[in-house]
Backbone:
């Protein structure tokens, strides 16, 4: 094993690296599943974090991406992406051991140390991630990006699913604030530290192709001028910024909303996360096939609106009076969000990589990450700061139907986090509009993509079950299917006519 880049990569070397890429996902996914997302927020609430601290904690992974700026120059000058990725991972993940120890303490000091450790972990992750993304861009063949990263994401989701269920059971068996609950959180973060270090070891075994020779010393401004000077990539950046702001204004506070406003246990939030991950697993292969067959933008045109609608529909949880109905509503929304965010994540990552020139993708990938960092980092901090403002205000809308038989009244009362979900929906609608301006080769219209999604789903269900009623439920109206297929054939014929002759 060597940490030095290789001047030549054989087909066997490349395939070996791609296999390790999938195996590594089990360990990096394990570390993330045990120390991030719902568990990280729950741990912060366990330590006594306020809404502002929750917002800062949610913003840290994104704002840390601003370290991509010096990381770009580090990668371009040192030109050893594997070494940067491995060392950053080793140092950063030792912070998880410190967080594990903090489970037995409380108060402001423990919270500040916790935030500092998380900041260092996120910062080193950003530096290593800059090198990692550019490295993967040169390792994975472009025509297999969808296949490779969808398989990797499936394994990431599987391990998150398994460990999420285990975490939910462990938290359900312990009482909030008890010594046993302290031990559960400590064990989670200690295990995350171990699996994270194993992940770094596997990354060190993967081959790295040598970067093309530098044309000379590059200043940061000159390096960023290439992606910023690309009009189509700028349009993608506007979509990324507005989309990330929309979803990160609301989603980081789902745990706070469900635990504090709806008064459900943290274990139920983890079960919702598991339901979302199940939907994610079932949908990923479909989105991977469609992104490779057509275009990433076409996948986004279906997934992004559905995801935004699900966020807005979270308002319904505070309107329902029956606790069982609220649970079913939340489960349904998390299934929708899990399935659609799978397509959004895969397609948005692939489209950024696809629009980046091969061999010099560092600046493009980092610029995309910086845009994400600013938008997604500002949103939860703003949400946390405005929490008290919205908590003290209500908006009530009453719909009344009068008839000879009586009067039916339907009150709608927006309070606290409901405002965030509504605002996120409005900003998300603007983001979807900006997506329509991005150009990508091979895209098809939304209606045709919906037809393909339903058709692929119908085939998958037929492979799973032979129940006639289940199959009939997936039948499409014949006119819609024929229309979708006709549009696709016309699109392919047009591309064939415009393809240059060799």
Residues:
């Amino acid at each position: 094993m060597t940490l030095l880049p290789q001047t030549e990569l054989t087909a066997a070397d490349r395939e070996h690296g791609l296999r390790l890429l999938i195996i590594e996902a089990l360990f990096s996914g394990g570390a993330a599943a045990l120390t991030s997302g719902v568990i990280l927020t729950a741990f912060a609430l366990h330590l006594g974090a306020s809404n502002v601290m929750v917002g800062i904690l949610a913003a840290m992974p994104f704002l840390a991406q601003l370290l991509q700026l010096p990381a770009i120059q580090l990668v371009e000058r040192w030109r050893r992406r594997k070494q940067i990725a491995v060392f950053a991972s080793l140092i950063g993940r030792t912070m998880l051991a410190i967080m594990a120890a903090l489970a037995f303490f409380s108060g402001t000091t423990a919270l500040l140390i916790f935030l500092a450790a998380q900041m260092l972990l996120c910062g080193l992750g950003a530096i290593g991630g800059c090198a990692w993304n550019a490295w993967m861009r040169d390792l994975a063949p472009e025509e297999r990006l969808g296949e490779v990263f969808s398989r990797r994401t499936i394994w990431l989701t599987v391990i998150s699913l398994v460990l999420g269920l285990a975490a939910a059971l462990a938290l359900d068996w312990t009482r909030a604030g008890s010594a046993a609950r302290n031990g559960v959180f400590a064990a989670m973060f200690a295990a995350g530290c171990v699996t994270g270090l194993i992940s770094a070891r596997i990354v060190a075994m993967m081959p790295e192709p040598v970067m093309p020779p530098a044309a000379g010393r590059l200043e940061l401004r000159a390096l960023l001028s290439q992606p910023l000077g690309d009009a189509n990539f700028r349009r993608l950046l506007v979509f990324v910024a507005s989309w990330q702001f929309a979803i990160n204004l609301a989603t980081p506070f789902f745990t706070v909303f469900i635990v504090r406003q709806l008064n459900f246990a943290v274990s139920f939030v983890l079960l919702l996360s598991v339901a979302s991950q199940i939907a994610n697993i079932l949908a990923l292969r479909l989105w991977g096939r469609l992104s490779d067959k057509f275009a990433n933008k076409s996948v986004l045109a279906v997934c992004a609106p559905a995801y935004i609608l699900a966020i807005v529909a979270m308002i319904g949880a505070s309107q329902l009076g029956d606790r069982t109905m609220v649970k079913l509503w939340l489960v349904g929304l998390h299934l929708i969000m899990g399935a659609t965010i799978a397509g959004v994540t895969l397609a948005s990552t692939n489209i950024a990589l696809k629009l980046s020139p091969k061999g010099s993708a560092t600046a493009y990938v980092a610029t995309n990450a910086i845009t994400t960092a600013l938008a997604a980092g500002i949103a939860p901090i703003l949400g946390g700061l405005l929490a008290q403002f919205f908590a003290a205000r209500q908006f009530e809308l009453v719909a009344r139907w009068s008839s000879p038989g009586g009067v039916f009244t339907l009150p709608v009362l927006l309070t606290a986090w409901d405002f965030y979900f509504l605002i996120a929906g409005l900003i998300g609608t603007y983001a979807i509009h900006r997506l329509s301006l991005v150009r990508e080769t091979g895209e098809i219209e939304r209606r045709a993509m919906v037809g393909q999604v339903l058709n692929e789903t119908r085939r998958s269900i037929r492979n799973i079950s032979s129940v006639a009623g289940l199959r009939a439920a997936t039948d499409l109206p014949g006119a819609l299917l024929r229309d979708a297929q006709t549009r696709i054939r016309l699109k392919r014929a047009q591309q064939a006519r415009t393809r240059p002759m060799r």
Summary: Residues 442-490 have pLDDT under 50 and may be disordered.
